[in-house]
Amino acid sequence: MIRECTDEDFEEIFTTINDAAMAYKGVIPEDRWHEPYMTKGELRAQIEDGVRFSCYVDNQEIIGVMGIQEKADVALIRHAYVRTKQRKKGIGTLLLQELIKDAKKPILIGTWKAAEWAIRFYEKHGFHLVEEEEKNRLLKKYWEIPDRQVETSVVLIDGKY
């Protein structure tokens, strides 16, 4: 079942993100990896900055989360994670479909350049990579990330942009 996350879900969101993010260890640049991948303070800051999380719940346990954040004339898909042992079951697809079904703005997604599985996932769902120059412009306009992360990331867009 998919539902909007509540304040009471904070610990499970935190746990889900950090479990799933282990897929990046040894894949993304070493200077971008840290444990935990997302601290509780960073997660709180993301929520306070307008990221609205939805969660996939199975047997009263959150096993997948994905956020969406309105930014001016676009919406950003943020922090899409499915617990390691629950991958390849369509949970990410269901979360993505739920978050974008009523979208009235173009959807942008940023992810690590080295996360080829994530890029393939979004391409399978109709998103496409933007060119390097456009990627840099979009990341600087809509995200607040360090220059090093801009260098090592990609942006995918839907057909509305």
Brief sketch in words of this structure:
This protein has 161 residues and is α+β, with helices and mostly antiparallel strands. It contains 6 helices and 7 strands, in the order βααβββαβαβααβ.
Descriptive report:
By secondary structure, this protein is α+β, with helices and mostly antiparallel strands. Helix content is 34%, strand content 27%. It has six helices and seven strands. The chain has helices at residues 10-20, 40-48, 91-100, 116-124, 132-142, 147-151, and strands at 2-4, 52-58, 61-71, 74-82, 107-112, 128-129, 153-157. The protein has a seven-stranded mixed sheet, sandwiched between helices. A hairpin with a 2-residue loop joins strand 3 (61-71) and strand 4. The longest helix is centred in the N-terminal third of the chain and has 11 residues, at 10-20. It is globular. It starts with a strand and ends with a strand. The mean pLDDT is 96.
* Strand composition percent: 25-35%
Strand-and-helix sequence, N→C? EHHEEEHEHEHHE
Q: Which radius of gyration do the C-alpha atoms yield?
A: 15 Å
- Helix count, DSSP H or I runs of 4 or more residues: 6
Low-confidence runs (pLDDT<50, min 5 residues)? none
The major β-sheet equals: 7 strands, mixed
Structural category: alpha+beta
Report mean pLDDT, rounded to a whole number.
96
Features:
6 helices, 27% strand, alpha+beta, globular, 34% helix, 7 strands, seven-stranded mixed beta sheet, 161 residues
